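The pair is set out directly below:
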Amino acid sequence: MSAHKKLDAWVKEVTELCQPDKVVWANGSQEEYDSLMQLLVDAGLATPLKKRPGCFLFRSDPSDVARVENRTYIASKSEKDAGPTNNWIDPLELKKTLTGLYTGCMKGRTLYVVPFSMGPVGSPLSKIGIELTDSAYVVCNLRITTRIGDPVMKVLGSDGEFVPCLHSVGKPLAPGEKDEKWPCAEMENKYISHFPEERAIWSYGSGYGGNALLGKKCFALRIASVQARDEGWMAEHMLILRITNPKGESYYVTGAFPSACGKTNLAMLVPTIPGWKVETVGDDIAWMRFGKDGRLYAINPEAGFFGVATGTSYESNYNAMKTIDAGNSIFTNVGLTDDGDVWWEGIGTPAPAHLIDWKGNNWTPDSKDPAAHANSRFTTPASQCPVIADDWEDPNGVPISAILIGGRRPSTIPLVHQSFDWNHGVFLGSIMGSEITAATIDANIGKVRRDPFAMLPFIGYHVCDYLQHWFDIGANAPDPSKLPKLFYVNWFRKDESGKWLWPGYGENSRVLKWVIERCSGEGKAVTTEIGYMPTLDAIDRTGLDVSDADMAELLKIDKAQWLNEVASIREHYATYGPTLPKELTNQVDALEKRLKG
């Protein structure tokens, strides 16, 4: 029980519906975490890692390994409010279905009440959620990825606002029955449901990742994006980094990138240019509001990293590996070595002669299946990151100078270009995306999968209203001259033979240097049809094996390709329906006119 009548009434209602054996209010202590993890070890669901003190391995059910977008719903009162990019179900019908599924779903289990803060506890930029869950795995992960327990309850007080988040794995236990494997429901009974008008989340049937850790994509993006629209701020799928030049001047940059475009790597970048330093504020989500000085300030609403393990190595992301190696981490669906360590494809060390794979089977390098699932994960405290910025938990946020957007484009899009102004930047954000290359979807090879601001699966309302909100933020800025500058980057440009033209990874710091120089009024640029472009010598290539010819190709604007891009953009905009913001049509018309001019 608490001092909050609305919260207590909700907990009582859910308890009567779900019928757990007992109710436990999480206090967020280390002792509680250790106790819950021991319960999971004793149940056979968690494996302590001998080589990594304080770390544990979990294996999920093969049917429960990732976000289930086709079972994720925006249950707005009106279907048109969900828009063409979301799955919509009538909220009354959905609640009827889910109420049936929730009835008795926690029998034999414990209902945990987990108060959590998205953002530093007590920050004016933070929001509070309460997750009710029957999964101890979820509680342990929430303790790493958010701030939970008694400090949050103290801020909530007796009448504070909170987002109710109800979660169940959907696997009641009969008397005397225990979990023999990862508990979850069949795919057809998995529901990740959002009720934007109520600011509520109901999740059923999955125990994995963002389906169950409801503070992450469900709250921090889908529900928060609706709150942000109504309250005049921004909830974005963006990293936040601090970059400091040799003079000791620091700037803050956010960046939106679709999956497989190096977002986490950029957040923890190790610069290759002398005297420059990059520090991490956040690797995934940014909440931004205008400060008293008229600048846009951002917080990272999370407290930990929930990163993809497969492919992460000391070469691809040194600082992520150092964060993991500091201990206190949870690994899900990776391989377990015979000496009690973890291993996954792309970790940078040779495959062991034998291990237990993510399905619990014996595995050798000759096995046909991978040792780790492609979406295997690590959950690790952000505070352990060796390059975490000292102000990453500043309750007032950090002032943003630049916003990066990008995608994986082998042609057309140059290495970097800057928007003419805010509205042009919103246009660039609306068309960003990656080219489809997977051989399994032959019909779409070469087409661009557009992902506006990397938010396509995470917008809690109509995509056109979301893009209009970006325009409104610019129009309502207290001082338009203080708005962040927007830059479109593309690390993935190739030459005609298919060779990468840009080395990427730490060398991306050279592009960041030009971005910062543009923000401070120093960077050299020329005006082109698509935006401001660096001159051939504007990006520092000292000690870098990139020729003038390659640089010219990286910065090349092929008008024929761009006119094809215009046609592709118009085709894509047509899928959004009649409420497409007029300014986007104006922007694509202006681009075409400049290209033909």
Summary: The chain has 16 helices and 30 strands. The CA atoms of residues 314 and 555 lie 30 Å apart.
